[in-house]
Amino acid sequence: MITILFFMSAQKSKQEALIFDSIDKEKILSVKTYFLSDYGEKLIHKIISTILTKYNRMDLLDMSYSAAKELVINGTKANLKRVVFKDLGLDIYDPNDYAKGMLEFKDNLAEEKVIAYKPKFKKYDLPVICTMYFNQNVLNIKVKNNFPLLAQEEEKIRTKFDRAKSFSSLIDFFMEHGDESEGAGLGLTMVGIMLDESGANKHSFSLYSSQEFNETVAKIEIPLNDDYKLKREVFEEEWSKSGLSKEEFRKKFSYTYKEFEFVNS
């Protein structure tokens, strides 16, 4: 595992060399951030653009980068919620405490307020990790928080996903939701609409939360050629042949990932 501190300006030439070398060898790259700075945005943009240049798919850059950035911002808001509750000494699982904590959370969602929490994100070990793994067939973008979703968060996300089906464009979505302050599910829903507008398969975007692994992961599969089958499509095909229940087969069905190259932002 290689760790590079991208905020150290003297290291930038070495960092860029590592990016090019890693992408040339199709290694996995991860950007670990506590608050996505301008430089962090440029770093993610650089990695994605270099990957897409390698496979002559720069037509996918705007959609891929915008989706990655939105997922990282959404993950940071989820971290902010946890910090607010810790600071107030509230039990996030208690309905009464949850209502109290959400009032404070909503008051701190502006970017200039969120950045002030960066030291506490570090203190409580609440990073957002954006991982890109890829080959000539697909670019996968995975954004992870190191805690599972709350039941009420899952419910709000499902509700907003369902409501999003009625919107034909991002403009329509923002006209109805642009002034909402909580943000639960809004960023994720926006990514879904963004992918739909680009012509991507709706199953290319997935979200899962695991108590066992203490994580929440949002993932986008971006096919780089017409022959690529989404993981969900492969799962359904293989499951139909297995004779197992979905839960049994899910435990056996997995992809093997290569070693991570970690990049701190």
Jot down its keywords:
265 residues; alpha/beta; seven-stranded mixed β-sheet; globular
Q: What is the element layout, followed by pairings?
A:
Layout: E1 3-5, H1 12-24, E2 28-33, H2 38-54, H3 61-88, H4 95-106, H5 111-114, H6 118-123, E3 128-134, E4 138-145, H7 151-164, H8 170-177, H9 186-197, E5 205-210, E6 215-223, H10 231-242, H11 246-252, E7 260-264
Parallel strand pairs: 1-7, 2-7
Antiparallel strand pairs: 2-3, 3-4, 4-6, 5-6
Short description:
The chain is built from eleven helices and seven strands.
Structure description:
The protein has about 260 residues and is α/β, with parallel strands linked by helices. It has one domain (about 5-265). It has helices at about 10-25, 40-55, 60-90, 95-105, 110-115, 120-125, 150-165, 170-175, 185-195, 230-240, 245-250, and strands at about 5, 30-35, 130-135, 140-145, 205-210, 215-225, 260-265. Strands 1-7-2-3-4-6-5 form a 7-stranded mixed sheet, covered by helices on one side. Strand 3 (about 130-135) and strand 4 form a beta hairpin. Helix 3 (about 60-90) packs antiparallel against helix 9 (about 185-195) and helix 7 (about 150-165) packs parallel to helix 9. The longest helix is centred in the N-terminal third of the chain and has 28 residues, at about 60-90. The two termini are about 15 Å apart. Residues about 1-10 and about 255-260 have low confidence and may be disordered.
